[in-house]
Amino acid sequence: MNDKEYLRQTIEEKSTLEFSVDLIKKRNFLFIEMLDKTSKDTVVQGHNAQIVKDMRIKIEKLFIDEIDMRNHIFKAKQRPIYHTFNQGPKVVNSDHIFFSGKWKLYFENPPRLFFANKTYSKALVSNPKKQEQVIHYKKKLDEYFFGKK
Question: What is the pLDDT of residues 11-53, one digit of tens each?
Fold first, then answer.
């Protein structure tokens, strides 16, 4: 998280990783990083080079302050460190990490308000009654987190 490492572990099978952050800032980056993957970690077979075994990380569930981040995982970015030059795109948005390099998710505190604002600010609401509801709930969130009225 940000510039501090909270967890480093070798993952063999499906795993649940949990950690608590002792100091949180207004603006934050959550990093997940695969380390030391080489081309030998990807096993291919056949004339069409079918991948039969690979080292990878799949982010199935992600919670920050009890907020399910599943809908926000694809807002994260990774700049993969490929095995060969120009092997793939420079930046990847995915729930999988196939190559070394940091997967990075930006968020602000409080995360519930930050992601709610991101979701609702992009929503196209043409119905005036629904617009009122969106404004009402955004105000409620502001009151809850900031005491604003």
Answer: 888 888 888 887 678 888 999 999 989 989 999 899 888 989 9
Q: What is the per-residue burial (b if ≥16 Cβ within 10 Å, else e) of 12-48?
A: eeeeeeeeeeeeeeeebebbbebeebeeebbeeeeee
pTM: 0.71
d(CA 28, CA 31): 10
Separation of alpha carbons 112 and 65, rounded Å: 8
Segment 111-143, tens digit of pLDDT: 888 887 776 655 556 677 777 777 787 777 777
Q: Domain spans of the chain?
A: 1-15+24-108, 110-149
- Hey, which bits of 12-100 come out as E strands? 27-34, 43-45, 50-53, 57-58, 63-64, 67-68, 77-78, 96-97
Would you state the structure tokens that stand for residue 71, as one six-digit string? Answer: 């809908």
